[in-house]
Amino acid sequence: FADMRLAGVGMVGVVHASDPVDAIQRFIGRLELGMIPNVIDTVIFLKDGEIKKIYELNLVVKVPSGMTSLDLARPVIEVRDFETGKLEYEIYTYGEENIIVPVSEVEKYLKDSMKSIEEKLIERFRLYDPNAEVEVISPSKAIVRVDKSVLPKIIGRKGETINKIEHELGISIDLMPSIPKQYKEIEYEYVETSKVIEFVVPSQYSGAKINVYVGRDYLSTVTVGKNGRIRFLKNSEHGRKIIRALEEEADIKLYIED
Question: Using one digit for the tens of pLDDT, what is the confidence trace for 78-116?
Fold first, then answer.
């Protein structure tokens, strides 16, 4: 069957199995993993005279579900529901073994794991700031937003305190200053030249210190120049971040203490 399919002959094969994934598994070990979607691109599961499930198989290169590091990208066979397109299984090589992973179980594990991490982080950082906000990106990374005044205490001398917290909780933490409730948002006009990005605010704010946020992430505190202008060079670190934010249509907001 495999030889005929690889020769380009359209064929329908019949395999007796208790579920459609079991039918796919019969070919693992008999064929190279990357060849399986060329031999079996569609699986139709019949039971009691009815079509119960239809799967389609595709080979992609990606980071498997549940993994985060780009270094772990590899060829993965995606098994998707033919009607909905929902990803249900992934087949890939892990170590020396070929494994089939139910994506729903991975997602449930990640959800439960991230919820537990969030609770631990909230409990820990609200010792420093009762209004601390936690956003868990993945089981290995989180963003914590706290009042700017407590940042030095959390970071500690040469980063000792935050490093200790990261080690204890087993997660990488990005600390960000939160947006204080007493901050007032300022409207602005955006001006762009070949070398400079400018935010123009009402001239009454000239000389004032303005906090710049991209979405909810703190970017910088700057002093408003003459005629209400705030300038960033495009080739500067902040300038590049602003350009990237604009390309991604992220909100850029300016705040001043009310």
Answer: 999 988 888 989 888 887 788 888 888 888 888 888 888
pLDDT of residue 183: 77
Q: Are 134 and 126 in contact (CB under 8 A)?
A: no
pLDDT on residue 181: 66
Q: How far apart are CA 42 and CA 60, in angstroms?
A: 16
Q: Please give the structure tokens belonging to residue 99.
A: 């494994």
Q: What is the mean pLDDT of residues 193-217?
A: 86
Residue 172 bridge partners (DSSP):
141
For the entire predicted model, the pTM comes to: 0.54
Q: What is the DSSP letter of 250?
A: -
d(CA 43, CA 59): 15
Cα–Cα distance measured from residue 236 to residue 132, given in angstroms and rounded to the nearest whole number: 30
Domains of the chain: 2-95 (no CATH), 107-177 (3.30.300), 183-257 (2.60.40)
Amino acid at 44: I
Integer Cα distance of 65 and 88 in angstroms? 11
